[in-house]
Design brief:
This protein has 144 residues and is mainly α. It is built from five helices and no strands. Helices cover 67% and strands 0% of the residues. The longest helix is centred in the C-terminal third of the chain and has 31 residues, at 94-124.
């Protein structure tokens, strides 16, 4: 073996630096792999599909009334002559009705703001109603 002690020390120092550099790279890779923001930024469609799939499996399914139980219930209602109107669907009107319900207050508020701004502009232009008081503002000659 022709390796001297100095060569061995230099090689060990080089290996330690290289291992230190490799460990820092591994740590950075682990941080990147566990950062959900990185994955959403770089793979948005895959993350959206994954969220959709997880949501599909987590949300419980509606429990349906068993047909035999429904028949028995219908027979009992007929037997005792109970007239029952079928319940209306909770989402009658659907999405359009919901959108109108959300948009209507915003539209009404906008209309009120426009009306207030127009009346304020009219009052500042000298179209104020005659209150009988002497004011320094010029009076408009609006026929009554």
């Amino acid at each position: 073996m022709s390796d001297s002690a100095d060569d061995i020390v230099k090689r060990m120092q080089h290996l330690r630096r290289q291992v230190s550099h490799d460990v820092k790279g591994i740590v950075q890779s682990a941080k990147t792999l566990t950062d959900w923001r990185y994955h959403v930024r770089h793979h948005p469609w895959m993350c959206a599909g994954l969220a959709l799939g997880v949501g599909y499996f987590l949300v419980p399914r509606r429990q349906k009334l068993q047909t035999s139980e429904a028949r028995e219930l219908a027979e009992l209602l007929k037997k005792y002559k109970v007239h029952v109107n079928p319940p209306q669907s909770a989402n009658a009107g659907g999405l359009l009705r919901a959108l109108i319900g959300v948009a209507a207050p915003a539209i009404a508020r906008t209309a009120m703001n426009i009306a207030q701004n127009r009346f304020a502009a009219m009052n500042s232009a000298g179209f104020a109603p005659d209150t009988g008081e002497d004011s320094s503002r010029p009076q408009s000659h609006v026929p009554r």
